[in-house]
User: Fold this.
Amino acid sequence: DVQLVESGGGSVQAGGSLTLSCAASGRTYFNWVMGWFRQAPGKEREGLATLDSSGITHYADSVKGRFTIVLGSGRNTMDLQMNDLKPEDTAMYYCAVQRLHPGVRWKVIGDYPHWGQGTQVTVS
Assistant:
């Protein structure tokens, strides 16, 4: 199975920056889609950004131009660089992974079988 562990969350003032990291271990996919999602209290979980093994990225309109998804410096890690943070970015942030396949739907929460436990981001 695949295990995912997020890190890097914390509290930051509006306009500040944070970088979240997601470390994958276990039986990782050869071709994969890894994504960052978030869920604020009382709201549905939403997709923010994905990166697949071919290098293609997708971003939600709400974070485009502010957030960047990249491979991390560590083995099997993926980072989410977040700039110009806003109070509305406050949420629990999760990483997830699925196998890359034709017709993959990057935004569909239910298509991701593997999830981390999440890391909290608070913007004041």
Observations:
- The two ends are 37 Å apart (CA to CA).
- The CA atoms of residues 51 and 57 lie 5 Å apart.
- The chain has no helices and eleven strands.
- The mean pLDDT is 95.
